[in-house]
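Cross-posting from the modeling subforum.

Setting up a comparison between two proteins and wanted a second pair of eyes on the formatting. Protein 1 (sequence, then structure tokens):
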Amino acid sequence: MIGIIDYNMGNLRSVENALNKIGSSVDIVSDPDKLASYDKIILPGVGAFKDAMEHLSSNGMKESIKEFSKSGKPLLGICLGMQLLLESSEEFGHTKGLGLIEGKVVEFDKSKFDHRLKVPHMGWNELFVQRDSKLFKDMKREIYLYFVHSFHATCPDEFAVGKSFYGYDFVSAVEKDNIFGFQPHPEKSHENGLKILKNFTEI
């Protein structure tokens, strides 16, 4: 059974529908005391990093996620959920994240853009797989996925399993032991997004 964390920040139903489409059993979970009972958990999210961390802290979910990460069972962060896995974000000042993967979240540096590029980064773009990952099993090394974000992850290359290009290279997928994350929206990415979710359910 897979638990999707409900903390009032995101695209829960669309992620739930995508998982149902590939035949997975899913619960929406708002009680932090119940996380440990699931085989896998997914941390989705849309919105601001600071608001998300405040929600996770206020209801006890922050500590429960950290405890779950120590269990060895798979944990997946999607979009903002991926960013929350990192140590901190510069969005609306400095905010500490969950700290499960070394790295931080920064705003796109528009000084490196040409005049045609806008923020947010929105639409279809390629994710270039950097090394073997269970998330991308039986997939091409270049995967088209759907993105919507104004801030992006930075982390050591040892944890960067996917990168994308928008004005410059940025980290678009991370992995450390049983912890996984990717920036694009799988529920908006058609077959490729569903395949990634399917791969996660089979880890």
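Protein 2 (same layout):
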Amino acid sequence: MTDDLRAVIGDVREATEPPGEDDVAFDAPWQARAFALTVALRRTGEFPWDAFQTRLVEELEASADTADVSTDATGAEAAYYEAWLAAFERLLLEEGVLDDEALAERAAAFASGERDASEFVVGDRGHDHDHAHHDH
């Protein structure tokens, strides 16, 4: 396990609340969506933060044990959010928020562009572009 990854795992273990939206930056849109969905569902009371935190630490440790972790910043960021997404998916299934079928359906909807997480955006969603939004 690299020292950088150990530091990330340590930081995650010490956290008691999810990071604020101003505290993070993302290298790819999927990372922002994974973060936003996790924080939004936690805020609605679907699960306690420590339930997610525990799974994230487990995923980070597992990925450090089984894969070559990139030493460049972009690769490390991607690996972190891949672990984040895996932890979030496990949480949804293990806590009974979604079942396997519902998770697969929602993942397919996001992958196809049918959903874009706009239902989790607080405030005015009115904006000017040429595609329809569907409330699910």
